[in-house]
Amino acid sequence: QITRQFILEFSDELEEKYTRRLSIITELKKELRENNGELALFYQPKLNLIQNKVLSVEALIRWNNKELGFVSPEDFIAVAEHAGFIGEVTTWVYQQAIRDIISFRDHDIDVMVAINISAQDVMNPELLSMVMALLRVNELPPSVLSFEMTEGHLVKDLGKAVQQLAIMREAGFKIAIDDFGTGYSSLSYLSKLPADILKIDKSFVLKLDQQESDRKIVRTVAKLAHDFNMEIVAEGVENQESLEILRNYGCEYAQGYHICRPIDAAKYIEWHKTFSL
Ligand code: C2E
Ligand code: CA
Ligand code: CA
Ligand code: CA
């Protein structure tokens, strides 16, 4: 039975949710306009398990707002996507990434930076030309950047997505399919999407050392990726046992807290210089 009390509590909850959503939209748009330093780009290395070297890193956005406090990217990225301004977030991200790449290079650190993009970005050809123009101005080759996208975002117009991704690859950017194995994932994407790298979702990796069923999945996905000429990245590697298992399965890259947490560019430079296995 639905009581008056239930309705009141339910609408309170809804109101809270929408108020927060609205604040995220207002505050994030304001920050993107004014650049008050609330946004930051953190970096997490991907360890190449064959060469025992870090050749690439993932850029992960952070947002600390004075009203809302620290907001998880899981939350505000989804809001920006739904509200239709994720492109402005992505623009901030690649501009910051290119500044950081320049400072990495000043420290003789040559890593490829992977940025996360959404379907709206893939469908926007202007984004690609702006990234390329900014690289050109800074005399950087496309190989300094790569793109990770979550396959679920692509479903709406797969044909167009495939076409856009092919153009990005032709331009020299590596493409990774993110979060493979979750949500919307479909095996048919493997043959349809032009991608270089498959990132197996951390939900299959976190307990790799404890769960035989996860090991079966990861082993099979690694084989599948290789059959489609893709390299495989495992994210969520939290201990050495999992890392060794991944190495045995022929996984090319491992990423996770066991290797390094996401850290800011200055800390990353220090970490990279002192890292050894
Ligand atoms: P993702 O792309 O799948 O990123 C991996 C997430 O796993 C990151 O969370 C990372 O901090 C976390 N992680 C890394 N290693 C470990 C580990 O060993 N254990 C555990 N438990 N977690 C680990 P984060 O930074 O909170 O980002 C969450 C999601 O937000 C990302 O998932 C991505 O989908 C999205 N995101 C983050 N930055 C950006 C961005 O700049 N643009 C876009 N469009 N999306 C972003
Ligand atoms: Ca990612
Ligand atoms: Ca992922
Ligand atoms: Ca994710």
Radius of gyration: 20 Å
**Helicity range of the residues?**
40-55%
Distance between the termini: 61 Å
- Which small-molecule ligands are present, each listed once? ligand C2E, calcium ion
Run of helices and strands: HEEEHHEHHEHEHEHEHEEH
User: Which structural class should the secondary elements be placed in?
Assistant: alpha/beta
Q: Quick one: how many beta strands?
A: 10
What strand line-up does the widest sheet have? Answer: 1-2-4-5-6-7-8-9
* Count of separate DSSP helical elements: 10
Largest sheet composition: 8 strands, mixed, barrel
Q: How confident overall, as mean pLDDT?
A: 93
Overall geometry comes to globular
Question: Strand share of the residues?
Answer: 15-25%
Q: Report low-confidence residues grouped into runs of 5 or more.
A: none
Brief account:
The chain is of the alpha/beta class and 277 residues long. The protein has helices spanning 4-34, 73-82, 86-106, 119-122, 125-137, 158-170, 188-192, 212-227, 240-248, 265-274; strands spanning 39-48, 53-65, 69-71, 112-117, 145-150, 174-180, 197-200, 231-235, 253-255, 263-264. Helix 8 links the parallel strand 7 and strand 8.
Overview of the structural elements:
This protein is an alpha/beta fold and 277 residues long. Helix content is 48%, strand content 21%. The protein has ten helices and ten strands. The protein has helices at residues 4-34, 73-82, 86-106, 119-122, 125-137, 158-170, 188-192, 212-227, 240-248, 265-274; strands at 39-48, 53-65, 69-71, 112-117, 145-150, 174-180, 197-200, 231-235, 253-255, 263-264. Strands 1-2-4-5-6-7-8-9 form an eight-stranded mixed beta barrel, surrounded by six helices. Strand 2 and strand 3 form a beta hairpin. Helix 3 packs parallel to helix 5. It is globular, with a radius of gyration of 20 Å. The N and C termini lie far apart (61 Å). The mean pLDDT is 93. It binds ligand C2E and calcium ion (3 copies).
